[in-house]
Amino acid sequence: MAEPPGSPHRTTGSTLLHPLSGLLGIPLDQINFVACQLFALLAAFWFRVYLGPSHASSAVRHAFATLFGIYFAVFCFGWYSIHLFVLVMMNYGIMNMASIPNIHRYSFVVAMGYLTLCHISRIYIFHYGILTTDFSGPLMIITQKITTLACQLHDGIGRQAEELTVEQNRLAVKTRPSLLEYLSYLLNFMSIIAGPCSNYKDYIAFIEGRHVHMKLLEVNWKQKGYDRLPDPSPTGAVMSKLCITLVSLILFLTLTKNFPMAYIIDNEFLDKTPFLSRLGYLYVVTQAAKPKYYFAWTLADAVNNAAGYGFSGVDERGAFRWDLLSNLNIWNIETATSFKMYIENWNIQTAAWLKRVCYDRAPWYPTALTFILSALWHGIYPGYYFTFLTGILITLAARAIRNNCRHYFLSSVPLKIAYDIVTWVVTQLAVCYTVAPFVMLAVEPTIKFYKSMYFHMHILSILVLLVLPVRSQAHSIRKPQNQVVQNSVKSKEK
């Protein structure tokens, strides 16, 4: 968020780095964010080497991770960090006092309700020009973790294994966590500032030293010529992600400020620029808005990896993978040939959270409810709701086109290449059209933008849904585990 001129350090967090902020001309809250993440990176390496499971008990690791996380929160947000601690302790009370059949409902309502109230208060505070340090990011991550744990606790204690999907059964939590485990999961220094959200069982396995070992046991290492389990190091993955972070930072400092999203609704620009050129510029400004997300999410991923957290196994080539907590896949984003593919590779951990707490549990209209929850979680700016409601429409239209047309283009390589090129262009432009209100935030610029674009994506999507038959959405991922097993047995018998 830009600071108004004449406000040298409008933040409730630490002002220790104010001279550096003035020297670089970057808002102090952003300087504090980067400083905390870089310090967290160094602390993560130290944590893995000197407080590894073989050198320290789980209690010590939990305590260290929690205390450093609390310090980072106070450093960045000052007294605003009390919102994080209030929400955490309220839901700890719910987790211990609520009945298991309702624990996920109560936790969800309280966490989302408190987050929404904070979103509302921040917008009114911003409107009246008081201190505007944005503490909503960590609060959003904590909300994800609280609701994730509550749902997985409900699955582990309140439901039978036969009622769960394979994934729900794997992630189900069988016992309520202790206070230290709970605080460590929610407030650890690796994810308190920028996330990402992870599953409780994965985090506890990491703290107890079982995280990497469990993944390695899924591979037959004797066939690969190993006498014992290898010891994968995250150093290579961390260095690679830090390179991406550096490039993203450079692009942010050079491109983002030179290609503002607001220019696409400038009156002079609209009067003098033809429609196709406006479409091209929309793609450029959307690309320019991405590096800050690439920077923050990749750096957060590197911090977790540096601590030894985020190992996901071995790929087809035998290389170790450290992408369990990765929040994006840049190559798949930039080459996406479908709206679904783009969404699946952007903010991956939030998409996984939405799937686990909403999509897999929604009794009806899972796609619409998931988009609405995503908008509510992000905040109450009208632009968010324009984006996600438009996203519902385009997702349904894209699914209809793919289901009805794609198979006609698979008969030959040239047809498939042509199909991929066309769908890449349409996907990238559809994403740009959809996310522009997310950046603009307010109603007036959003409507002005849509008018300048002649509402073309809305109109085309509605026409597609009216013309093409829409297949009922399959929910195979939501089938209970025993039903999946029965289906696989039947298919084998055939």
Characterise this structure.
Helix content is 66%, strand content 1%. The protein is an all-alpha fold and 494 residues long. Residues 1-8 and 482-494 have low confidence and may be disordered. Helix 17 packs across helix 18 (366-378). The protein is built from 23 helices and two strands. It has helices spanning 18-24, 28-50, 58-77, 82-97, 100-127, 136-158, 166-171, 179-187, 200-207, 211-216, 235-256, 267-272, 275-289, 291-306, 330-334, 339-344, 348-359, 366-378, 382-405, 413-440, 443-452, 456-467, 481-493; strands at 313-314, 320-321. The N and C termini lie far apart (60 Å). Strands 1-2 form a two-stranded antiparallel ribbon.
Write the layout of secondary structure elements.
Layout lengths: L17 H7 L3 H23 L7 H20 L4 H16 L2 H28 L8 H23 L7 H6 L7 H9 L12 H8 L3 H6 L18 H22 L10 H6 L2 H15 L1 H16 L6 E2 L5 E2 L8 H5 L4 H6 L3 H12 L6 H13 L3 H24 L7 H28 L2 H10 L3 H12 L13 H13 L1
Antiparallel strand pairs: 1-2
Write down the Rg: 24 Å
| Helicity, as a percent range | 55-70%
Task: Give the helices and strands as they follow along the chain.
Answer: HHHHHHHHHHHHHHEEHHHHHHHHH
Q: Could you give a short account of the major beta sheet? A: 2 strands, antiparallel
Q: Structural class of the secondary structure composition?
A: mainly alpha
Report the count of strand segments: 2
Shape: globular
| Uncertain parts | 1-8, 482-494
Strand order across the largest sheet = 1-2
What distance separates the N and C termini?
A: 60 Å
The average pLDDT value, as a whole number, equals: 88
Estimated share of beta-strand residues = under 5%
- The DSSP helix count reads 23
